[in-house]
Amino acid sequence: MQINVLKFGGTSMADHKTWKQVLEIINKYEFPVVVVSATARTTRRLVEAGELAARGKLKEALEISDSIKERHNQIVEDFLKENPHEKNKLIKDSCRKNTEAKISKLNKLLTYTERQSTLSPQMKDAIAGMGEQISSYLLAQCGLALNMMTQHIEARKIIKTDAEYGKANPNLLEINQRCGSLETVLENGFIPIIGGFYGESPKKTITTLGFEGSDYTASLIGGAVNAETIEIWTDVSGIYTSDPRFIPEAKPLDEMSYFDATEMAYFGAKVLHPSTLKPAQERNIPVFVKNMFEPEAAGTKIIRESHHELDVLAMSFKRDIATLTISAYETVMGYSFLTKVFSVLEKHRLAVDAVNTTEASVTIALSDSALLDTLSKEFIEVGNVSLTKDKGLLTLIGCSVNSAQKLTEHIFGALGDIPLDLISFSKEKRILNLVLNNEELIEVAKRIHKKLF
Ligand code: ADP
Ligand code: ASP
Ligand code: MG
Question: Among the atoms of ligand 2, which is closest to the Cα of residue 215?
């Protein structure tokens, strides 16, 4: 059985018209396993509701919950109106009942959050995961109105994780075992539809895999069923040389390697969750990024080895970076200085984006977070600390080994008199990182893109 895992993101799940398009794409496959996101903007609104409740604004939080309910009821209603079927009443009733139950659970979580006056990570995940729980059930029901044998499969039964809320780690052994049931569903002629992004901890609580986590759900399932392809269906025709929303001249790439695509996601390209390619890579499963609205366009194929003759393959950028420079006290031995700095990062499980060192100082660039002040305090044990916020990180990916000279010339030409905070280049990894001010990031990205692509 050659299984294709298809993932549809928030924009694909925007309204009843896109739901129809999603179902039509699914219908072209013999053995599809489908993973869907929440409807567009729903996850963000759910988190907003949780935050409002924690600040005592339960009424506003419940209004959001109510509008989410109304929106989903409306999508189903419009869908069924445009796709009449003898079972429509049955489908509509079961949709309403399911959404009602989910929203009533959500309201309980919001009320509890208000009483606690804080949105705990556990509660935040339970609330945030609600969007996919609702959308996946409803899409499966709407499939029935098109005479498709769509079957909702609860993600909690399959995506088993640890209890690290907000960024849960999948339990691959359990996931691999439980995905066996999907093959039975397919053998019986049904099409499994699963909510992405969330899973379940050993304590049976809801966890989430991080923002954009539905991509990761799809690849975890793809790896587990040893899929023929994992296909990320979205609103652009593949991975572009840079974010087309900001760089209109950006072009889609035909092909790239797992490594380059991972780096691209890690350094800010929202088109993929950074962990997506891991399960695919382990089993050498090609990953496609394709456009829902232009299904005929080739999209991008991501595979193990992809060679190119270009000076540079692509460019990512990421806003809201902070830089921390730690200058060692004279009493701290040079050889233990870096160990001390990195053990603080390890303690807080923080990954850095770029690093520069001199013999007695280190500058690290990392995403701005609530932890920065704690970090700065801990670094004071080792040296003088200076913290700068509101920075942006620009990353060139797949730099050709022989073009470093040419690239830096172009970069400095593009920068003009815009100040640069940090530059680092890894020949081995073919990555060049620049840190500069947030407000100049997009302008510099545009200029560099014009020169290099
Ligand atoms: P989905 O809802 O399908 O998950 P996302 O919004 O998460 O969609 O991802 C698609 C968006 O990613 C695109 O609309 C685009 O703006 C953004 N993006 C950022 N960098 C890139 C890139 N290099 N190539 C393509 N899209 C990118
Ligand atoms: N709905 C989640 C988010 O907005 C997961 C996803 O769409 O991939 O991050
Ligand atoms: Mg996405």
Answer: 8
